Amino acid sequence: MVLLGSTGSIGVNTLIIAKKFNIEVEVLVAGRNIALLNEQIKLHNPKVVVIADQNEIEFVQHHNVYAGEEAILEAIKQSKSEIVVNALVGFLGLKPTLMATECGKKVALANKESLVAGGNFVDTSKITPIDSEHFGLWYLLNDAKPVKKMIITASGGAFRDWDLAKLKDATLADTQKHPNWSMGQKITIDSATMVNKMFELLEARWLFGEGEYDAIIETKSLIHALIDFKDGSTTAHFAHASMQLPIAYALNQTMQEEILKPINLLEVGSLEFRAITKERYPIWEIKEDILKNPHKGVIINAANEISIEQFIDNKIGFLDISKNILKAYEHFDLKASNVDDIFVIDQEVREFLKG
Predict the structure, then answer these.
(1) 13 near 246, Cβ under 8 Å?
(2) Which terminus of the chain has fewer Cβ atoms in its 10 Å neighbourhood, N or C?
């Protein structure tokens, strides 16, 4: 396989599963965690390694190292692997997804932005989602009963219990205090704004087609997806919060062994569900509209990425992230007619918010 984003949490878990199933790792793509990358190279012996920065190639303990976005695309193109695991963060992940599908490869997708920004141009028949929420929906849909609504769950992020009046003063450090687990910086901010869940709803729309979608908060993150069936019943997908289960199915779809320990409901005792409100998560104001107009995902993704950069640089406040997204969403009414348009629209939105 080709693994994009090997040193992130999804990449690390993917390599654990690859080792378990004796899957050869042909290409490793990583960012700037060269120390961890070198450990992965020793363990998995890839044929090709790609990193972000040309200046760090000398520190990588491998004879065949390249750097940059074009090198990622070339590595995918030249690889013999049938599967590409895309665990890159951000808009950077779109071109590799497109390249992989164009080459006829299957993509185990954790890069949300591929579908959020470019869903209209991605061949979803070649996509296997490895987000736990989409995996949960896929798992439940195997029953093939008529569906009324598909529901994914959210943790609520760092500020689910905060006084609303204090949100305007939230700092970068505050956003990183996730109540349930430790993730990368950007996705933890996205969890706090609920943008992450908006993206996942858009992904679900592209993956599973038109229909009714929603999200709710489940505070213990043990239920990842629910489906309301037309017969009036609801089925939930319970699993411990580990990416190893969806990754295992993506890499070995004849799964017949235990990857996670089952949840002991007696130990859990109780579950708590909450609504996602516009007062706490202003981005939720456009949920219904974006699901009806999923092509506008490129707008909210670009607005989110540039706003997060500004927030990290202390140029805007936490609540301004959502305000900027809503501002861009109202300002732009563009629809890409081809893949190239996606990158043009992305740039226009970023320039608009840079002022």
Answers:
(1) no
(2) C
What pLDDT, in 10s, does the model give residues 1-33? Answer: 999 999 999 999 999 999 999 999 999 999 999
End of a domain among 255, 276, 297?
276
Q: What angle do CA 326, 332, 333 make, to 5 degrees?
A: 120
User: Could you give the angle at which helices 318-331 and 185-193 cross, rounded to 10 degrees?
Assistant: 70
Instruction: Judge if pTM exceeds 0.85.
Output: yes
| Whether residue 140 sits in one domain with residue 246 | yes
Boundary of a domain, candidates 259, 276, 293: 276
Q: Contact, 128 vs 203, CB < 8 A? A: no
Per-residue DSSP letter, 122: S
Question: Alpha carbon of 185 to those of 188, 190, 216, 230, 305: distances in Å?
Answer: 5, 9, 23, 39, 12
Tell me the two tokens of residue 33.
Answer: 């965690």
Q: Give the domain extent around 243.
A: 131-156+194-276
Token duo for residue 337: 């007619």
What stretches in the chain show pLDDT beneath 70? none
Cβ distance 13 to 242 under 8 Å?
A: yes
8 Å CB contact between 238 and 263 = yes
Q: What is the pLDDT of residues 315-330, one digit of tens each?
A: 999 999 999 999 999 9
CA dist., res. 56 & res. 60, Å (int): 7
Q: What is the DSSP string of 301-332?
A: HHHHHHHHHHHHTTSS-HHHHHHHHHHHHHH-
| pLDDT reported for residue 241 | 87
Query: How many CA atoms within 13 Å lie on the side-chain side of 350?
Result: 15
